[in-house]
Amino acid sequence: MLEEVRITGLGVIDDALLELSPGFTVLTGETGAGKTMVVTGLGLLFGGRADPSRVRPGEQRASVEGRLRTHPDGRVARQVEEAGGDLDEDGTLVLTRSVSVEGRSRAFAGGRSVPVSLLTYLADDLVAVHGQSDQQQLLKTGRQREALDKYAGAEFAEVLADYQRAFNGHRKVHGELQALTSQARSRAAEAEALRAGLAEIGKLEPGAGEEEALRAEEDKLANADALHAAATAAHEALLGDPTAGMDGADAVMLLGHARQALEAVRRHDAEIDGVAARLSEAAYLVSDVAGELASYIQSIDADPARLAVVQERRAALGRLIRAYGPGGVASHISGSPVPAAPEETDNIAAVLGWARRAAARVAELDTDDDKIAALTADEAELAARVAGLAARLSGLRHSAAERFAADVTAELTALAMPHARISAVITALDEPGPYGTDEVEIRLAPHPGSPALPLHKGASGGELSRVMLAIEVVFAGADPVPTFVFDEVDAGVGGKAAVEVGRRLARLARLAQVIVVTHLPQVAAFADNHLVVAKADDGRITSSGVVRLDHAGRIRELSRMLAGLEESEYGQAHAAELLAMAAEQAARR
Question: Which of 74, 111, 117, 72 lies closest to 95 in space, CA to CA?
Fold first, then answer.
């Protein structure tokens, strides 16, 4: 329950303190005095949109601070404590909200800075605001369905939560199934193309590093004659040509002569001895090289048939590389679960990597039939569950609609519309939606024999205000919050109906704290606590404050509201009569 609210720098309000109390508090004032700013301030306090244009000219920020009492072990207290805030020692909770001229908004709960969203969450358990904009929203069928669902109670909310889980699950499965079935042809074509690629690779069976080995072999075979001639010439230079007789001098023979020349004197000089040793090593090395050249000459042979085979194999591998190697035209695999590996820099390694990924993708695509069968079964099961829960929702809605119609009709009787009848018409949708298979429309028959019409067609302005108030009161009874704020929901009502509105609000105030912004004296007379928004003008700027009225002040304010003149004897007499009537009604309660 709100105990006090301080508003500073908001619109025409410079600094105003609302001292609130249990029961029925009414807020009145002249047009333009700032009653709307009070409601705006309450909305801001409980997480409403921060509009920097509402900051009072000349001020840097607007702020609203509310002090309220809540149960120390309740959900509100727990949420505040979880956010790091605390209740005061006397058990009250302080909420603060501010907005700067630059548009920056800050919120505090229990002395701790908190997200603005926390104030919105707290508001669900603290206050229900019913204003003229809410009335306009209630004319929409979607809002009427939402309101009836809220009225239906906890069992309905539980079934609705189950339904929405099943509905969302069904929609997800249905989407997956549609995607699979609609793409079945393209996925089959993809699998076929991958299988063709795998068959082509499997037929050649390329090996890692094979391309490089074949390139080297082709180079050798293509140059066999030149290699043979060069090796033969080198061999003859090292070891001589046996067919040339003993006249030719070769490297091995010359090294032998040099070694023999040094052999006789090597013992006389260590330096010559070292040279002689190295000549011996050189002779052995040249002999080994000559032997290797002889073997090489024997091994090398021009083989045109083998060269053709190698070239054909290289051409075939080249086609694979161009298709499936790095940057190949078919190297990308849609949905591939195996990305290309960084080490696949070798062309053949890249082709083999493609083959691994393609095989994995084919295995995935080959499970489509199983997936479709499983999803079809899941969809059927979820569809049956959605249908069953939708039927339960519909049954609970019809039951709630009957109770709701009876409760609102009873409220209308108390609001001087004894012959009016409210009905909540439920029609079936063509297919299930997020809230079931029902569409809800609230209808009014204002007089006996008149047809029940939608709210925006079946009521005059004054009747619509009373219907809305009756609906709001019924919803308020189904919405267990400690404070209700009504912003001129009595617009368009006057005379006897206005008295009934005041009486009904006073009756509601026995169950909860009720704060009403009104322009009707008949409503204000029933209040337990009367606040007036007073406007002051110094010739340069207008400001407003809030004053709590005593009995004499209430008579003057009601006289102003009745006759436009606070000091009118007739108006004051009428105001006193209204207060006396309201007091008598209160005594009867």
Answer: 111
- Classify residue 589 by burial, with Cβ atoms within 10 Å: 0-12, 13-18, 19+: exposed
* Residue, of 360 and 564, whose pLDDT is higher: 360
Interatomic CA distance for residues 438 and 148, integer angstroms: 11
Strands in 87-176 per DSSP E: 92-100, 105-109, 112-114, 127-131
The answer to whether 544 and 14 are in contact (CB under 8 A) is yes
- The domain spans of the chain are 1-138+483-548, 185-365
Tokens of 515: 């704060």
Token pair, residue 203, equals 């037929």
Alpha-carbon span 280 to 489, nearest angstrom: 122
Q: Which fold has domain 1-138+483-548?
A: Rossmann fold (3.40.50)
Give pLDDT tens digits for 240-265.
765 555 456 788 888 888 888 888 88
pLDDT for 242:
57
Instruction: Report residue 195 as tokens.
Output: 């299988």
Query: Rounded CA gap, 124 and 135, in Å?
Result: 19
- In eight-state DSSP terms, residue 55 is B
The contacts found for 158-163 with CB under 8 angstroms, 24 or more apart, are 159/389, 159/392, 159/393, 159/396, 160/393, 160/435, 160/436, 162/389, 163/386, 163/389, 163/390, 163/392, 163/393, 163/436
Of 149, 122, 144, 119, nearest in space to 134 by CA: 144
Instruction: Output the pLDDT for position 337.
Output: 45
Per-position b or e across 325-339, b if 16+ CB within 10 A of its CB: bbebebbebeebeee
Of 150, 128, 130, the residue nearest 440 (C-alpha):
150
pLDDT at 438: 94
Which residue type sits at 1?
A: M
Roughly how many angstroms between the first and final C-alpha of the chain, as a whole number?
Answer: 22
Report d(CA 498, CA 427) in Å as an integer: 35
**Alpha-carbon span 121 to 80, nearest angstrom:** 10
Q: Using the CB atoms, write b or e for 367-405: b if 16+ within 10 Å.
A: ebeeeeeebeebbeebbebbeebbebbeebbeebbebbb
| pLDDT tens-place string over residues 477-528 | 666 678 888 887 676 677 777 888 888 888 888 888 999 988 899 999 999 9
Would you give the DSSP letter of residue 133?
H
CA dist., res. 543 & res. 439, Å (int): 48
Joined tokens for residue 111: 């002395």
pLDDT of 228 over the 90 cut:
no
Per-residue pLDDT reduced to its tens digit, 397-417: 999 999 999 999 998 888 878
Q: Of 183, 138, 188, whose CA–CA distance to 473 is shortest?
A: 138
Q: How far apart are CA 212 and CA 414, in angstroms?
A: 99
Short-list 382, 477, 12, CA closest to 177 = 382
Query: Which strands sit side by side in the sheet containing 436-445, from one edge to the other?
Result: 421-433, 436-445, 453-454
Q: Looking at the predicted structure, is the pLDDT value of residue 63 above 80?
A: yes
Q: What is the 3-state secondary structure (H, E, C) of 384-410?
A: HHHHHHHHHHHHHHHHHHHHHHHHHHH
CA distance 90 to 462: 44
Please name the residue that has the structure tokens 């309660």: 589
Q: What does the block give as tokens for 35?
A: 């009653």
